[in-house]
Write a structure and sequence with these properties.
Elements: E1 13-17, H1 21-32, E2 36-41, H2 49-52, E3 56-57, H3 70-79, E4 85-87, H4 92-104, H5 108-122, H6 125-133, E5 142-151, H7 154-159, H8 161-169, E6 175-178, H9 179-185, E7 195-205, H10 208-221, E8 225-228, E9 231-235, E10 242-246, E11 249-253, E12 255-258, H11 264-270, E13 277-287, E14 298-300, E15 305-310, E16 313-322, H12 331-344, E17 353-363, E18 369-373, E19 376-383, H13 389-404
Parallel strand pairs: 1-2, 1-12, 2-8, 4-16, 5-14, 12-19
Antiparallel strand pairs: 3-7, 5-7, 6-7, 9-10, 10-11, 13-16, 13-17, 14-15, 15-16, 18-19
The protein binds flavin-adenine dinucleotide (FAD).
């Protein structure tokens, strides 16, 4: 339990910028603590990365993309049209400084630190989502399920020993099962998967965009204010009210929380704070009328994509593409997801689908940014959740709300401090 704090900084009027899963969760928790909360987004809630993700409540995903050896593997992955890594070469000059830091963090020591920072945000995510949604309209979207990591054989599983060792060190447990046991739960999977990891205590969100919208409705029903406007500037001096400029108007509050996903980098820069963060562009293929479906999310470890049952559909998502925020979607990643799902579920047919490109907020050190600006308890941040923001969103929002209201969070927040980049 968080302690009730007596900080003079306990803020009552708070503006939360960004209505993705992180911002909405923060807004709900602030409201529950009695704050007067305004949630601002340039769009409807849940239209950023939180809209089209794979929906997995990936409690075990403490292993970052950059594991030791990535230096050797990455060039081959970029050149392989069946590899899950894409690069828009014209973006390379802008990407390079971030990429060098990103790749140089692929050491055993740093990856262990990342896993230690992520575990407290992820391990109890299903419960955190249930608590966030409570008995409101978001609750039916939170589903408990087994999560299966699929391998061609036991040797392929053993080839992933580093990641599983890291999970074991963080206290996770799982079963290694054979193809027959896998098919008792997921009968439609291709026979090529002869080994799988079965994780209990996981789950998924049955339609992430609708879920975040439902949470935002619950927030408004509880007296929160939702404003649709683009934030063009923030002023938050430590000793005065915070001011947020929106489309020709100015909103005022005691504190402001920047939860704007990958777009937080520009907002932080406007406040004089540097954060090396890039978009890891990811894609989904949403199949609307699948002939067959799954009973829970699966991760194809070779193809590095996820498939998740959704309300009235099946979503296949994954791919990392570097190419910045402005470039249009690329054809290659979409084709790759189509090939992948046909390989994984050979009996699958459909007639209607849609594709989507989204932006994972990726700090160069793979650790989310959460907490106050240096020496300023009126300006807060929560962003940079990479591949696990849906999972970690409710807990992150709760921890940030605690910090904003002067409570002591029940997690050591020092690894997430924005100070590390200043
Ligand atoms: C293909 C793909 C699959 C994924 N799968 C999973 C998964 O299975 N499980 C998981 O846990 N995570 C997954 N993720 C990651 C997850 O989606 C993100 O980490 C998470 O959604 C980030 O949430 P957020 O609230 O920080 O940002 P966002 O959802 O991007 O929200 C940011 C909000 O800020 C608003 N905003 C930005 N700038 C401004 C401004 N100037 N003024 C006003 N509003 C502004 C935007 O409109 C947006 O609504 C996946 C991501 C992708 C791309």
């Amino acid at each position: 339990m968080a302690d009730e704090g007596s900080s003079a900084a306990a803020a009552r009027r708070v503006i939360v910028v960004g209505a993705g899963i992180v911002g909405v969760a923060c807004a709900i928790h602030l409201r529950r603590q009695g704050c007067d909360v305004t949630l601002v987004d340039r769009d409807e809630p849940g239209q950023g990365a939180s809209f089209g993700n794979a929906g997995v409540l990936a409690c075990c995903s403490v292993v970052p993309v950059t594991t030791p050896g990535i230096w050797k593997k990455a060039p081959g992955m970029v050149l392989d049209p069946d590899g899950p890594l894409f690069l828009r070469w014209s973006y390379m000059p802008r990407l390079l400084p971030w990429l060098m830091t990103y790749l140089s963090s692929a050491t055993v020591e740093h990856v262990t630190a990342v896993s230690k920072a992520l575990a407290p945000l992820l391990f109890d995510a299903v419960d955190e989502h249930k608590a966030l949604a409570a008995d409101g309209p978001g609750a039916p979207h939170v589903r408990e399920a087994l999560y299966h990591y699929l391998y061609a054989d036991k040797a392929a599983y053993e080839g992933d020993a580093f990641g599983w060792g890291l999970r074991r060190d963080r206290g996770y447990a799982w079963e290694v099962i054979d193809g027959a046991a896998l098919r008792e739960v997921e009968p439609h999977l291709a026979p090529g998967y002869a080994c799988a990891v079965r994780l209990r205590g996981h789950g998924y969100i049955s339609l992430p965009g609708d879920y975040v919208q439902a949470l935002a409705r619950a927030f408004a029903d509880a007296g929160g204010r939702v404003v649709k406007a683009r934030v063009t500037g923030i002023q938050a001096p430590p000793d005065g009210p915070a001011r947020v400029a929106v489309d020709g108007d100015v909103l005022e509050a005691d504190a402001v929380a920047v939860c704007a996903g990958v777009w937080s980098r520009a907002l932080a820069e406007g406040l004089g704070l540097r954060v090396p963060m890039e978009t890891e562009r990811g894609y989904h293929l949403h199949i609307e009328d699948p002939s067959i479906t799954l009973n829970g999310p699966i991760m194809d470890t070779a193809g590095k994509f996820v498939a998740t049952p959704m309300d009235g559909g099946l979503r296949v998502a994954g791919v990392v593409e570097f190419g910045g925020l402005d470039a249009p979607p690329s054809a290659g990643p979409q084709a790759l997801l189509r090939r992948g799902v046909k390989r994984a579920l050979p009996g699958l047919t459909w007639t209607r689908d849609s594709t989507w490109l989204g932006h994972r907020p990726a700090p160069a050190d793979s650790i989310p940014v959460m907490g106050p600006a240096p020496g300023n308890d009126r300006l807060f941040f929560a962003f940079g959740h990479h591949h696990v923001g849906l999972t970690a969103g409710p807990k992150s929002g709760r921890l940030l709300a605690d910090m904003i209201t002067g409570r002591t969070p029940n997690v050591d927040m020092s690894p997430y401090a924005i100070d590390r980049f200043q």
